[in-house]
Fold these 4 entries.
Entry 1:
Amino acid sequence: MFQAIDLFDLAQTEHAAIFDGCSFVWDALKKIHDRTLAHLKAHGCGSRYQGPAVVGENVFIGEGTVVEPGALIKGPAIIGRNCQIRHNAYIREDVIIGDNCVIGNSCELKNSLIFNQCQVPHFNYVGDSILGYKAHLGAGVKISNFKIVPGNVTVDKDGVPYDTGLRKFGALIGDQADIGCNAVLNPGSIIGRGAWIYPNVTWRGILPEHMIAKNKCTVDVVMRRPRQT
């Protein structure tokens, strides 16, 4: 699960070349900035929303994309066709978004690659991450990209922590994976194709494709007692 083809349908992004020459899929995170600037230099900034949204100079917006009032697109950024950039979305530096994507209210993105038809719809943070085709984040999902202790982010490789060389690295979320509401993905998480993480789970590490991660805790149901008056 350390190669792009293990997680993603590369036909579902116009920027598949970003993975060329990468020994590991997370190496593409180092190339998002240069890829974004090269695209802007070749294609210009494209259309610009004229309503009460804030759009930076180095931003390309594809045909049919709707940018709602209150959004802030700082850039450099590339946004594909027929996307919804909803009220109060905050798109920071070095973000590439594919076609038919949803970036919703109070969502913040930085240094990330988003494949086609991906949904980041409600109160999400996505930093230094790659989200695959039709991946979906439930409301309140946070992708943590920075360790609170010193050192680079590591991933488990053959049972041994492997240094990714990245101080900031959020998650790789495979095609059609679904992350439940209010889940937290810790730095260096890798989620396989079609995998599910249930709501409120705090996840660390690698979840193989088509697997489910869920909490084992039980909920107690007790008799409601009348209040003392």
Entry 2:
Amino acid sequence: MSNSLLLRNVRPLEGNCVDVLVTDGVVSRVGPALEAPDVPVVEGHNGILLPGLVDAHTHLDKTHWGQPWHRHSAGPTIQERIADERRVRQRLGYSPAVQSASQVRQSIAMGTTHIRTHVDIDTEIGLANLEGVLATRERFQDALTMQIVAFPQSGLLVRPGTQELMTEAIRLGADLVGGIDPSSMDRDPVRHLDSIFAIADQQGTGVDIHLHEPGMLGAFALELIAERTAALGMRGRVTVSHAFCLGMVDDAYLDHLTGLLVDNRIAIMTHGPGHIEFPPVRCLHEAGVTLCCGSDGIRDSWGPYGNADMLERAMLLGFRSGFRCDEDLELVLDIITRGGAEVMETEDYGITPGCRADLTVVAGETRVEAIMSRTPRIAVIKGGRLVAANGNCLI
């Protein structure tokens, strides 16, 4: 498949209508009425040109996307949902490779060009989920950039042997070390965090930690995370996902925590949850905290929500944040593009000459209208190749 093309009649970030010439997978020229004989042409229909959308937090190994409807029965606590998921997984026997591929194709159709996925690692399933998602990453390597986080969903210390499996997961191809609720899950926040940071330090990877713990409990974990980030020289390589506690502490303590995040370049992922307080997006952005967003679980045993549309996720994050002004909603669009790309350490990301041609064309008069309307993506281009058109994945 050619990785050169001429994208006609698009409006970069809702600007003037231009053509975009892509040569060898890189944006080479942007301007009106470009000529490029013998290069395939993709019609943009006056759509808005965006850099490819970034889903910086999902769980490809758990999705039921494309399968018959699952009637949900999980309890309200995280531990109950984990236990229910284990039962459902055993009963349904879905293939992680098949299911992750199903969600990836949906994500591509929705304009996503980059995904960071957490993959369960524990002593019951071993590395089976990782192997399935690794197969999907290889299969779609020319259509999607994927990072994999080895994720101890069921705990690290409470399931002896998980720590060794996490190290093996990195050796097999996972890109980052995950963690989860070091106090409430493992009952030993210091040892939990010491363990995952030690793996990351030894293997030369970044860290992405699920932190659902509320209030002061979560805030204490954030302080411990910042300590280890600084001590190991991992500034810019640590993400805290969810971080509900940032929406629960008083203003003075929030200022203290925000300072730790900025000083240690710790990123925050929030997906705009519907049931709990969450990080104050505008406040953190103005302070200089790197923010990203993700789909989280999509049609899995935890819940029926999600469709892999990051424009819909942007709308939900804006809605939950109380955003009404266009400039605020443009910030949310920035979070699902540039913010996610920064967290994934994506080089040459953007829509100007010299950038890698990972592009999405959406319909709408403005970027905010595109978020609200969420019409099928006109075109999705990855590395100069057309991978989706009119809402359909072509891979």
Entry 3:
Amino acid sequence: MRSNRSGLVGLITGAITLTPRRMALGGLPDIEIVQGILRELEESGLTLLISDTGGKSERIPNLVRTFQEHRVEGIIFVADHHMKVTLPGIAGDTKLVLANCFDDAGSPAVLPNDRSGQKALTEGLIARGHRRIAYLTLGPEMEATRLRVAGYRDALAIAGIPFDPALVTAANLSADDHLAEEQLLWDALDRVLALEEPPTVLCLGNDRMALRAYGMLRSRGLTLPDDISVAGYDDHTLITETLYPKLTTVKLPYAAMGVRAAQLLTSMVRDGNAAPEAPVLVGGPAVWRDSVRPGPANRISELPMRGRNPA
């Protein structure tokens, strides 16, 4: 016997029993992380065992215990949105990798680079001439909100634009209350549009919020993007490619996160590599579509020439 290796890897997820509410919190379905893991492990010679939590965190300790009884070499835990988790201790030499989440124990983790994503979007808006950029965020308790607001502020600071707290407000709830969410988003729009110097562009916490905002803005008689530009986050293409105008957004790199999580676990299990000391951050690009037009600072180039002949 060369070793006691089983060739098995356990995956714990809630993606299979994903509910509409959890999709709203997580943006794109976390099934894409699972698919990325599957694709990467296909050529590794490792066999993947998948267990679904059914949305019940109390099931996790039993699933961990069951996997270890089957002598898995490693466990990947996938969360439905960027969050902190508390998992039971992993016994023996079994390796653990967290995907889309992190813990206080410093377990190896693969996370979306939320700060970089919002920074890139905001920098792109500034480059297109926008200076009054409102940000209607997800719930303030969410890790993504803290990081994305930091990225938004990074971009403003680099451009020398003062941060205006009146332009940033929470417009989404973690609780399952669609009516309250609609009211909160309507109120957030009221607040920023009533400012003495209103925004020229609205950034929304995710694409679903942007979808709602389209209707609310049009009910106020505004034309998109002529009167105001709109951007989302996630690149949920069922929304972004079907809206009119098509929605500018930032891609959440879920599939890539799954691949990176599988690569990390494989390197620890097969190659004996040490776990990284810091989380592995995976970035996604800003995707520019028709919902953003040049801001006032750039529109002078759109004015027709009058009273002079072209050279």
Entry 4:
Amino acid sequence: MPTIYDVAAKAGVSAKTVSRVLNSDAPVGGKTRKLVENAITELGYVPSSAARMMRSNKSGLIGLITGAISRNAEPVEPAGLPDLYIVQGIQSVISASNKTLMIADTGGSAERVPGLMQTFLEHRVEGLIYVADHHQQVDLPLKTTRPVVLANCRDDAQTTAVIPDDERGQYELVKDLIAAGHNRIAYLTIKANAVATTLRTRGYKKALHEAGIEFDQHLLVMSYMDQPEGASQLLWNVIDQLLSIPNPPTVLCCGNDEMALRAYGILRSRGIRVPEDISVAGFDNYRAIAETLYPPLTTVELPYWAIGAKAGQLLLEKIDGKETKGESPYLIGGPVRWRSSVTTKSKSVVNFKPSVV
């Protein structure tokens, strides 16, 4: 492998002159610069980033830890790719800063995180970002002086974090449904112990309360299972239960778009039309589902790309020693994407216009 001295000999200059050309830290004549550049090209010389890093104490590297690559390689069920979109948002910001994003995948094992962090630190990364696959509370070994940002998760150590505004998203959806004339709104949640479920339930109840609609516990039902077969059966039972009560709901708010997709099939198998007989809404705005269903699905957008972009921005600010504005965790909200799976319920609301279509 050619060295700086080989380049100097080829160009007929000193190694110090070659260094000046490489680092642009001192003036070099145009003719001499051309000789050095030609020698570099002919020899295939690659400057040592390690040596440059030692001089500047800046590696230009950002470490990112995620499970997006291994987990979503071959999805067998229709589902969103939250952490992958977050990574894309981070990459867009980091690449614009002329730094390099190094990505390490956990392979689905949280036990690998400490080792991956150590590897990044040994490569002298300027900062670290950890990306979770869903909104959650984490407890990571973050004992480092390097800047760290969490994306789609938070911890008890007050680490800078960027998370989705789940409460506001559900609140805005239910508020729009009420404005469209619905007052019997069922909420079919994802896992009961999920952080998102707690926050969205709060938003659901808040919208009902503000509209003067009494909360009915029969309309709030956990409807999610990890196993596809079990999930379909559970959802069938939940819908059957909801449609059997004396005053059934006029709209089903599903905890995610995948659940809404299953709800469409269950309702149609019973001869129930969407939205003529009952309206359906989702959460995610996973467009492969929401835009291809018939009718297209009203849903709340989870702003994964924006979460990533904000996380990348905050990390760069921390690296530059800037004081970040706002309080962590940073909440990123997404709009209600209003489509034709929800209908208005009375003539008094025919002029209802949702904020986002």
